[in-house]
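Continued from yesterday's entry.
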Amino acid sequence: MEGMRFCYGSAVRWRGTMRILASVLLVVVAVLDKAATQKPEDGPYRGKYIGKFNSYHHQASGDVYAVDEYTFLLTGFNYDGNGIDTFFWSGASNRPGPQGFIVPDEYGKTNILERYFNKDFTLRLPDNKKITEVKWLAVYDLNSQNNFADVYIPEDFEPPVPQKAGSLTAIAGGPMVSSDTIDILDSKTIRITDFSYDGKAGGQGAVHFWVGVGPSPSSKGSKVPDEMGYLDPIRAYDRETITLELPGDMTIFDIDWFSVYDVEARRDYGSILISDDLNVPPSLVRVTPHTESLPNCRQLHKDYRVSWEVFGPQITIQLAGNVQQDEYMSFGLSGSDSRSQMLGADVVVAFIDGHRGYAVDYNITSLAPCVQVLGQNKGVCRDDVVGGLDSYQLHTYSRENDINTITFRRTLISSDSGDKEFLLDRPMYVIWAMGRLDSNNEPTYHDVYPKRNVQIHFNTSEPVNDCFSFTSREANLKDVWERQQIFDRSVRAFTATLGPAGGKRGYQGITGHVSNGLAWYINGFLVPELWLRRGLTYSFLVRGGNNPHSPEFYHPLVITDEPHGGYDRLSDARQSEIRVLAGVEFTRRGRPKPIAAGPLCLARHPEGQDRRLDDNFATFKKFNRTLKWTCDSGDPAVLEITPNTSWPDVVYYNSFTHANMGWKIHIVDSYSQSARSHASAYSSFNHSIRLLLIASSFVVWTWALK
């Protein structure tokens, strides 16, 4: 009996030991399983982790993520390329086999796979198939029906999708703030539907889009650039849908709340909380870190920053901007001591032309390109053109990752009486802008500039730095406004007035030229193409301004065989190469004299309308309805022309004083069907080119992962 008790007790202890051992093994298996499937912690957010490739042959390996419902991301992928008929392969069977379909490679091709070494790229399932409809992704050889590597989609897998995050409602005692649904589109992008803000915050009105950590909005947060990338206090909105991008390398996982916040009053006017572990797609935004060599840095726009250091009697300034190769960056001291003002400002214009950098000193005496007015240069003119000195000394320049960085120096008190002094005992109002250069590397009307006052203290006791990494995403090209054509044999008179150029969808998009801010409106249309018949007489009723003392609003009409205009600004040698067909007489000394300068009739934006929003108008017709016209009294100047056989088939109407304000005149022998077909074909060709540009601008997901 005692022996039986001993055996029974030993058996009980043995079974207990085995249970403990089994539990330990289960824990070990669970840990190993979790280690095999958990998301790697290093690097940026890449989507929802699926797992590692199970590697069987040909060194196929890597990690696999779900980017969205349709797209895989492969990171660190390797394959020796020695398979005979090998493809990315997927299907809904229990394991990889002949029943499946080819998944196009990162270029959308179904070619046999070549060698990969530690490569990151995306694969999109064909025919709008979803990741939840397949059970595995494999590297599979159809010839030998061998599986080189595979990864299985977990059951009940939920791929990343945009997530809803509530809506904004006004807080009692604050300005009106409201919205419909707020969507977290990806790890860096927030879309607010039907957003409204009445712009009536009290005090300084320093209201920003604001994010941070903690249980509720507070002053310890960060600005979010508005939908155009500006960091100024936000404007008024009326049921607008806007898309915001978190600054620098910040993601939605770094914040706990989003707010419309008054920084001066430290008040939240409407906010939402951000849930933890949102299952959203990774962002396509490319983040480019940029290190400043100077101790102070101010982020002026998501794509532009200024850094500086004062040492002794000199100030060193560095401008860095995410700009195109034909664009400039400008920065300088305001023309007013009480606000940021372009008129009277002292600025530097910095750019890189090929392999050479420039930092050129400019003086702004009028809001127009530099022109001669009664023998004097006025407008945005280089200092050395108006009798001053180029006071800036170029130090270094570089262009890397589409970012221009230009460093230069100047004495705080310049020897040029036309330059302003950098004061160190108080903040100073500054101005800045970015835009395109013309063919002479002169700045044209800026595309990006602030609407609010900007102040900088150049000599603080402690360094200041609010700069963040540059970001860029694929270009979102908007359709150009319709190219108008006046093709009517009964029209013999054209009224020429002036109006806004209309942004990138307007003059720039229609002609492909840079703009100075104004353009010709012919019979109410923005720079239409005209079709005139040889032998017939036509009249242009010109209302472009007849005051030669005005550098901004003096625009006699001229017709030449050269597309840009601004004949009066050209050198004698360049003028001699251009054929003037109408609008200019020459004096006995051979100097050009305009003859078609009529009283000014000008369309303007209504008061309070932001010119930077011109591209938000879907059509020119909608844009044109918002403009307000003012016309000086007096009869228009009449320019009569009769095209003859010596005229080229294409000529151009433009301004005598400023470049890039007009467009084409087609000279035909008859208003025949062939000419009309040519017009239609020309329009179709331009439409095709636009579609081609839009298609070519589409960047694959791989670009964002490099």
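--- second protein ---
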Amino acid sequence: MKIFRIRHTKLSASVLPSTHHALVRSFLHLGCEDMFMEMIDDPINYGLFPDAFSANIAMNYFIIQDKFSFAAKIACHMMKQEEFRLSTCWLSVYSCLKWLLCGDQSWITIPCTFRNMDNEEGEDLIFKVPFLKNPVFDDHFDLEEPRQLVGKTIFWMSEHLPDSPAIHSCRALGLKLWNKPDRLVQLLKQYCETSDLQLHVDALDFIFDDQSNEKNDQTEKSVVDQELSKLVSKIKDSAHFTNNSLEASFFDQMNKELPELEKTDIVEQINLISSWNQRRIQLLENKVRQIYLKKRLTEIAELRKKLTEEREVVFFYENKATWEQNVHPDYKDADTSVSAGKLPSDEEYVVPELEKRTVDDRWKRF
């Protein structure tokens, strides 16, 4: 695949933001869902980072097709990119809730079958060299467990949404899935101290019944569970809960907020696409100018070569000595005054002596 090759060459630095947007829309339009999910799951080798607008399109596309695992994966990638646009936050939390409550919590993994590394053009390929990593878990990019990824996505995205019983329930649910019991206890205590705050009972039941898979100390785990159980019971006894469905309540609130957000997104996306077009035109003009300058430099070099040859022909006799030295470098020390056209002055001129020659001398010459 060309994208895989470009990612491992120096051309990767010149990829435009519009390229990511165009790739996402093209894959969805052509129905290449598996290829799209493989690329988004492997950002190091493919370098595909969707923007907020293309991510919204993709999540909406997969939600309509009931492919909630794909939509939740895109939401998790938006969380990793820390893309907290309001419309993206709404769709991300809803995608994760649909995946969590749909009953089928399978996490689709696409095998890497689309790579093609035939280096026909002889380009310099760049790869990440394996090295020993420091034993540090950053709790962000190192997250791989699906429930923890979904939990952190729900919690982070819901923090940017307006407060409501559904949003408060999502924050508590996210901390539970993210396996942050201490922060969950603090959050529930804060909720208990607020008189007019309500949580959804299905979220409370999920928090109480769900058991984390992390290998924590059993004593510490039981203490946290007991404290959570007390807080959940306290919330239920104090009427700080509602029996309405969390998914339905969140969906209703999202549908009330999205129409206004869509208008803003449309205006910004139009301006963004316009700026992308202007940027591409500018880059194209710069490229044409570079090609023109390169062509002119070649023409100037050829013209200089031609003028140099003509100059050598015109001034051949003036530079005769130089030419002879170039042809016969062994005669550099020879007297070149005559060949160079230099005549001695009157003071330097010496009249040659005339020798008296006999007939015999003349005969010897022949």
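Strands lie at 199-200, 241-242. The longest helix spans residues 246-314. Will compare against the first tomorrow.
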